[in-house]
Automatic annotation (TrEMBL):
Entry GO terms, CC: cytosol; protein-DNA complex
BP-aspect Gene Ontology terms: regulation of DNA-templated transcription
Name of the molecule in the record: Two component transcriptional regulator, winged helix family
InterPro entries in alphabetical order: CheY-like_superfamily (IPR011006), OmpR/PhoB-type_DNA-bd (IPR001867), Sig_transdc_resp-reg_C-effctor (IPR016032), Sig_transdc_resp-reg_receiver (IPR001789), WalR-like (IPR039420), WH-like_DNA-bd_sf (IPR036388)
Pfam families from the UniProt entry: Response_reg, Trans_reg_C
Source organism of the structure: Conexibacter woesei (strain DSM 14684 / CCUG 47730 / CIP 108061 / JCM 11494 / NBRC 100937 / ID131577)
Length: 237
């Protein structure tokens, strides 16, 4: 059976942006399916599998944030959001509802292609799932790298792709301090073009999911002025 080409759903209501982004993607060998509003994007997503979604925030019918929320409720497909420079709040909200990355307009084609390749590379690594060792059990938390699942006190915890990667990276090196740039490089392959504060958003969201009290964490600790660390495996509580 012939393997299909990597398929990308490109969602933007501006024809000029569609043309600008579709050309380099197709030149790189990707199949590009276009949608120009939120409802069409959801319809296209139901028709066939996708390896990546590139999603503008400002869309007719349903905005990009709502589309992202609905996609994330049914799929772990990587999502890159396109935002205007003035829409800082949309970046934060987008990350919190499950976007894996965002690109601020205007952006260079080199940056765009770099982000797309990094997202697809992460997704491929996830699918191949040749992970080291079995489940990680720490206190009341279990992380299963092969199944890409997280459970707390026996209850399943839903994480985005990026949240899972950050948690797994930290948990595999208990007690080790990771800077934001180190985490960016581990999860995205590099820290180029990315705001280190992106890590803070994902850490905050993870704490809301796995900590009894996000202000008094048991698992994810802040090392002020440096970055973050996971609890030591010999911690007593």
């Amino acid at each position: 059976m012939t393997e299909r080409s990597t398929r990308i759903l490109l969602v933007d209501d501006e024809q000029s942006i569609q043309a600008l982004l579709s050309y380099p993607l197709r030149r790189d060998g990707y199949e590009v399916v276009q949608a120009t509003d939120g409802r069409e994007a959801l319809a296209r997503f139901e028709e066939r599998p996708f390896d990546l979604v590139v999603l503008d925030v400002m869309l007719p019918q349903l905005d990009g944030l709502e589309v992202c929320r609905r996609l994330r409720s049914r799929s772990s497909v990587p999502i890159i959001m396109l935002t205007a420079k003035s829409e800082e709040i949309d970046k934060v909200v987008g990350l919190e509802i499950g976007a894996d990355d965002y690109i601020t307009k205007p952006f260079s084609m080199r940056e765009f292609r770099s982000r797309v390749k990094a997202a697809l590379r992460r997704s491929e690594l996830s699918r191949s799932a040749e992970r080291d060792g079995g489940s990680l059990d720490v206190h009341e938390l279990r992380i299963d790298p092969d199944k890409r699942t997280v459970s707390l006190r026996g209850e399943a915890i839903t994480t985005t792709f990026v949240e899972f990667e950050i948690l797994l990276t930290l948990a595999r090196s208990p007690g080790r301090v990771f800077t934001r740039d180190m985490l960016l490089a581990r999860v995205w392959g590099d820290s180029a073009y990315r705001d280190p504060r992106t890590i803070d958003v994902h850490i905050r969201h993870l704490r809301e999911k796995i900590e009894r009290d996000a202000k008094e964490p048991e698992y994810l600790f802040t090392v002020r002025g440096v970055g973050y660390r996971f609890r030591d495996t010999d911690a007593s509580s």
